């Protein structure tokens, strides 16, 4: 039985979800499949990775973003991943990549064979989605139509203007703790898959939609990454939404009129339209 997700009155399309297991190498990940009640003919398939700080987050905390992606017109498979510090880099990433390969092989179970495939995520999940796009390029893996990054964690230095000046209170400590738990040792921060902001080769990546907000402490690294993708010849669209976005709850709360995710839904729908194959 499909369970209704967030309040239907907030969406152009009603969105429902059900449990969905996906093999990732030797593991089976217990995720969720989100789908609009009325599936567009050109619907793409999105692998979504929930937010948090590498050592936190869950399918439940990722429900709002996954629902928004589905409401924008896609079928969404939202998956968990191993959390730090028990699983340090690159364990969560390799698990997600194995799931991406399996989803790509089985795509016809959920959408048409020619439907576009995307990766998406918020915060730590945005980091993993950006790294998946690099891995798919480098390993000649599943072709991706795009990457959708919501306030992605890309820079372990935590030294940007927006981070230093965000009125985040004690939450800043948990971001540093999350990076430490994920990387384990400072030298791992040099790896482009661990910290995409440090990647020296950004050409050949799929189009990117990057969504942040004026009061998001991850704003500057999000915008900088988009600019670097463009400088490398890529297609990157960056939207910085007006404040207040109610960060840091903005990506976990049910969208409401004028909220961050309600505003982002239109941009996501446009991104699907412009990246779908003709």
Provide a descriptive summary of the structure in words:
The structure is a single chain. By secondary structure, the chain is of the alpha/beta class. 31% of the residues lie in helices and 20% in strands. The protein has a 9-stranded mixed sheet, sandwiched between helices. α3 links the parallel β6 and β7. The longest helix is centred in the last third of the chain and has 16 residues. The chain starts with a strand and ends with a helix.
Spell out the key features of this protein:
nine-stranded mixed beta sheet, 7 helices, 9 strands, globular, disordered N terminus
Question: Strand share of the residues?
Answer: 15-25%
**Would you tell me the overall average pLDDT?**
90
Distance between the termini: 34 Å
Structural class: alpha/beta
What's the tally of helices? 7
The run of helices and strands is EEEEHEHEHEHHEHEH
What does the radius of gyration come to? 17 Å
Helix content: 25-40%
The shape, in one word, is globular
Ranges where pLDDT stays below 50 over 5 or more residues in a row are 1-11
Question: What is the strand tally?
Answer: 9
Query: Numbering strands along the chain, what is their spatial order in the largest sheet?
Result: 1-2-3-5-4-6-7-8-9
Biggest beta-sheet profile: 9 strands, mixed
Produce the secondary structure layout:
Elements: E1 3-4, E2 15-24, E3 27-36, E4 45-49, H1 63-71, E5 75-79, H2 91-105, E6 117-122, H3 124-138, E7 146-150, H4 161-165, H5 171-183, E8 208-213, H6 219-231, E9 236-241, H7 260-275
Parallel strand pairs: 4-5, 4-6, 6-7, 7-8, 8-9
Antiparallel strand pairs: 1-2, 2-3, 3-5
């Amino acid at each position: 039985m499909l369970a209704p997700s967030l309040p239907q009155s907030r969406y152009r399309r009603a969105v429902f979800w059900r449990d969905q297991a996906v093999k990732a190498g030797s593991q089976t990940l217990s995720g969720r499949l989100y789908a609009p009640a009325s599936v567009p003919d050109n619907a793409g398939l999105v692998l979504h990775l929930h937010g948090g700080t590498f050592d936190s987050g869950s399918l439940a905390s990722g429900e709002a973003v996954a629902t928004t992606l589905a409401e924008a017109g896609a079928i969404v498979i939202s998956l968990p991943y191993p959390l730090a510090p028990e699983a340090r880099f690159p364990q969560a990433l390799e698990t997600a990549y194995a799931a991406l390969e399996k989803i790509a092989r089985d795509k016809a179970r959920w959408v048409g064979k020619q439907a576009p495939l995307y990766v998406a995520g918020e915060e730590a999940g945005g980091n993993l989605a950006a790294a998946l796009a690099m891995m798919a390029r480098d390993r000649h893996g599943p072709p991706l139509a795009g990457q959708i990054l919501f306030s992605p964690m890309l820079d372990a230095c935590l030294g940007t203007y927006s981070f230093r000046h965000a009125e985040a209170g004690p939450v800043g400590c948990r971001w540093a703790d999350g990076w430490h738990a994920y990387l384990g040792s400072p030298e791992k921060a040099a790896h482009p898959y661990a910290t995409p902001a440090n990647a020296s080769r950004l050409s050949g990546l799929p189009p990117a939609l990057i969504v942040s907000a004026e009061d998001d402490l991850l704003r500057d690294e999000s915008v900088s990454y988009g600019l670097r993708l463009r400088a490398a010849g890529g297609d990157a669209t960056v939207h910085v939404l007006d404040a207040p976005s109610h960060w840091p709850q903005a990506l976990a709360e049910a969208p409401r009129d004028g909220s961050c995710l309600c505003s982002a839904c239109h941009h996501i729908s446009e991104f699907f339209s412009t990246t779908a194959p003709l």
